[in-house]
Write a structure and sequence with these properties.
The chain is of the alpha/beta class and about 425 residues long. The protein is built from eleven helices and 21 strands. The protein has two domains: about 325 residues, ANL, N-terminal domain (Rossmann fold), CATH 3.40.50; about 100 residues, ANL, C-terminal domain (GMP Synthetase, Chain A, domain 3, 2-Layer Sandwich). The chain is about 30% helix and about 25% strand. The strands form six sheets. Strands 4-3-5-6-7-8 form a six-stranded mixed β-sheet, with helices on both faces. Helix 7 links the parallel strand 5 and strand 6. Helix 1 crosses helix 2.
């Protein structure tokens, strides 16, 4: 039986044994953490339980950027694969992986795909990049091989190639970024493709929310299902975690795989948040050999749900991402996160694509500019006022608004060298 179906006590007991092994390994093999233990006067043998983690400093993205190589715990000849993060929050970070790490990655995706209802009888079309030093595409491939499912490695973009592949190979499941789905639906409609009667029955999504905090579908999710009668599954992951939180058929949060990672939620001061409250997801990896991490602050703001799921799993579930800790905006005295702006834009019928840019004003305050593409309407002052009124009604304040050609917005959203859709650009330095 998978650990996530077992009792909380069994889960905690297993994690603490794995934590002790991880601490013993990291404190002797990682130059970065060896210095951290020594400089803070921490004895590794004293970290024996999850409660003891609070005695350790946090690991941050800037630590990984500044001391990247010092996180490596194995000799170079043990490293079989190098990957990097997407670099959306600064310089990309390189991760070194051993054979054992790739096996762990395959297992993570195996149980994640099973959670999302994928079986060995499925054919999965991977619509994310498998190159550009990207972990996710390779992870999906390894996991699907372990599961025994058929795999079609198409990569991202190119709607024509996606539909040609669907026609030729008849996959049952797509793996993609959800905001790409409306584009392939539009392509199908414009080219007379009967997509509703295609072989596709399920779409497993990455990188963007499909649900609101109460687990109801957000506008993107609703728009997809209004057009296409498919099963939609949301997942959450990051390169640093090397772990995925996947929804089950009940769609009520990403299931935690406790044998792979320990999770905490902390506030801005680094203190634990109350149960049910939103906090910054902080993770300690288990079973990672090349570059394990202790108390890494992901920057993602989420909440935990600890009641047993209807699917029978007893491990906690992670909510949709509310925002990123370092993306917090202070707009005319109101604190908010970019998803609040996205919600307004997604619910505005004449907006076709957008990007939110934030910079510092001459007085040091946040200057928020919304660049919006238009669906065949004149970009006049009346339309700008209407959009600003929509912001005011929803979030009580109004950012600056600039209307742009749809093509210009899409070039920003989908850069040639990018892996994820770009909706937020932070110029605050």
């Amino acid at each position: 039986m998978l650990l996530e179906y077992r009792s909380r006590d069994e889960i905690r007991s297993y994690q603490e044994k794995e934590l002790r092994d991880a601490i013993d390994f990291i404190s002797t093999r990682s130059p970065f953490y060896r210095r951290m233990f020594e400089s803070n006067g921490i004895r590794a043998k004293k970290i024996r339980s999850i409660n003891d983690l609070k005695h350790l400093p946090f690991t941050t993205k800037s630590d990984l950027q500044q001391y990247n190589h010092d996180f490596v715990c194995v000799d170079q000849e043990r490293i079989v694969d190098y990957i990097t993060t997407s670099g959306t929050l600064g310089d990309p970070v390189t991760f070194a992986m051993t054979d054992l790490d790739l096996d762990r990655l395959a297992y993570n995706e195996l149980i994640s795909f099973r959670c999302a209802g994928v079986t060995p009888t499925d054919i999965v079309q991977i619509m994310t990049t498998l190159d550009k030093r990207f972990m996710a595409g390779m992870a999906y491939y390894l996991g699907l091989r372990s599961l025994g499912a058929g795999v079609v490695r198409v990569g991202n973009g190119i709607p024509e190639l996606q539909w040609d592949t669907i026609r030729r190979i008849k996959p049952t499941t797509l793996m993609c970024v959800p905001s790409f789905i409306p584009h392939i639906i539009k392509y199908a409609e414009e080219h007379g493709i009967d997509y509703r009667n295609s072989s596709v029955r399920k779409i497993v999504c990455i990188g963007e929310n499909l649900r609101e905090a109460d687990f109801s579908l957000n506008l993107l999710g609703r728009r997809i299902l209004e057009k296409w009668d498919v099963e939609l599954y949301s997942t959450y992951a990051s390169t640093e975690m090397a772990t995925t939180f996947a929804e089950c058929e009940h769609g009520c949060g990403g299931h935690h795989h406790p044998e792979l990672i320990i999770c905490e939620l902390v506030d801005e001061a680094g203190q634990p948040v109350a149960e049910g409250e939103v906090g910054e997801l902080t993770v300690t990896t288990l079973g990672v050999e090349g570059m394990p991490l202790l108390r890494f602050r992901t920057g993602d703001l989420v909440s935990f749900h600890t009641e047993q799921c209807r699917c029978g799993r007893r491990s906690m579930r992670v909510s949709p991402v509310v925002g990123r800790a370092n993306h917090m905006l202070k707009l005319k005295g109101t604190t908010l996160y970019p998803p609040a702006l996205y919600d307004v834009l997604d619910n505005t019928p004449y907006v076709d694509g957008y990007v939110v840019e934030v910079s510092l004003s001459d007085t040091g305050t946040d200057d928020v500019l919304v660049k919006a593409g238009l669906r065949s309407l004149p970009a006049d002052d009346a339309l700008r006022k209407d959009l600003q009124d929509r912001f005011r009604a929803k979030i009580r304040v109004t950012p600056r608004v600039e209307f742009c050609p749809v093509e210009d917005i899409r070039r920003i959203n989908y850069p040639d060298t990018g892996r994820k859709p770009v909706k937020f650009v932070d110029k605050r330095g």
